């Protein structure tokens, strides 16, 4: 059934995954971590589809693109900078409360949703924190 919702889809060729099993392991870990967390500022992963040709990861679409693109092209106001910083810190705090360390937080891994809010993405470097 179609919902009419726009999504982003990452496509990984199976031939590449078959040649590099460590890549499949990292993708599986990323999918597992992202699906286990529920936070308004973590990019939503909707579905993972495996076919004979490709692996598809269906995610929330963020029309604002990467935060990197925004800060490269303009200077943010102190108020906007504070809001972004606060959002990123509270999202990282949530990740840590779920025993997840992102390990690759940078503007290229933070996306801007249609309403201007931020989404942390790309958990392929993440690790589980063990006590």
UniProtKB/TrEMBL annotation:
Keyword set, alphabetical order: ATP-binding, Kinase, Nucleotide-binding, Serine/threonine-protein kinase, Transferase
Gene3D superfamilies associated with the record: Transferase(Phosphotransferase) domain 1
InterPro entries recorded: Kinase-like_dom_sf, Prot_kinase_dom, Ser/Thr_kinase_AS
Residue span(s) of domain Protein kinase: 1-131
Nucleus is among the record's keywords: no
PROSITE patterns: PROTEIN_KINASE_DOM, PROTEIN_KINASE_ST
Domain of life: Eukaryota
A single GO BP: intracellular signal transduction
Gene Ontology molecular function terms on file: ATP binding; protein serine/threonine kinase activity
Gene Ontology annotations for the cellular component aspect, listed alphabetically: cytoplasm
Name of protein: Protein kinase domain-containing protein
Organism annotation: Eutreptiella gymnastica
């Amino acid at each position: 059934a179609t919902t009419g919702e726009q999504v982003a889809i990452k496509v990984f060729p199976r031939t590449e995954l078959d040649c590099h099993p460590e890549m499949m392991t990292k993708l599986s870990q990323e999918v597992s971590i992202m699906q286990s967390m529920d936070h308004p500022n973590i990019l939503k992963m909707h579905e993972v589809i495996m076919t004979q040709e490709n692996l598809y990861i269906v995610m929330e679409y963020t029309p604002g693109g990467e935060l990197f693109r925004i800060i490269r092209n303009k200077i943010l106001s102190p108020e906007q900078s504070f809001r972004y910083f606060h959002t990123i810190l509270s999202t990282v705090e949530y990740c840590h409360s779920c025993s997840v360390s992102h390990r690759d937080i940078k503007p290229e891994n933070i996306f801007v949703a249609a309403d201007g809010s931020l989404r942390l993405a790309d958990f392929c470097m993440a690790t589980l924190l063990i006590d």
